[in-house]
Amino acid sequence: MMALLQRVSEASVRVDGEVIGQIGHGLLVLLCAEKGDTEAVADKLLTKLLKLRIFGDEVGKMNRSVQDVGGGLLLVSQFTLAADVASGNRPSFTHAAAPEEGRRLYAHLVAQAQKAHPVVQTGRFAADMKVALVNDGPVTIPMRMTA
Prior knowledge:
Layout: E1 2-15, E2 18-23, E3 26-32, H1 39-51, E4 55-56, E5 62-64, H2 66-69, E6 72-77, H3 99-116, E7 120-122, E8 129-144
Parallel strand pairs: 3-6, 6-7
Antiparallel strand pairs: 1-2, 1-3, 1-8, 4-5
């Protein structure tokens, strides 16, 4: 499972002009399930992103997690993270999980996040979303979890 974490001052997702998810200070997490991913892989990724120390402490050192600072999570599905651009000029998405499996794993991760963290917002799976953010730092970290 792949994720792109962005530490943000604020972030939101719109679908058809309507804000469907919005956070202040926290993490915008773009998520992509890949072929062969399982719920255990999603759980492992969630544990890591909740504990990853990428927020500043009192002296500005990245020493606090999103949980430590009480930040929000905005979880957005994005299958294009699995793009393979090794050959040709058109990305291939053959490594992405099938849509039904991607939806299931995304829903699982969201449900687990809502149990583990007080502020969780989401995008809408397979929707045409407009994502807006103010990247704080900027801090952008790619992650890939495997079994």
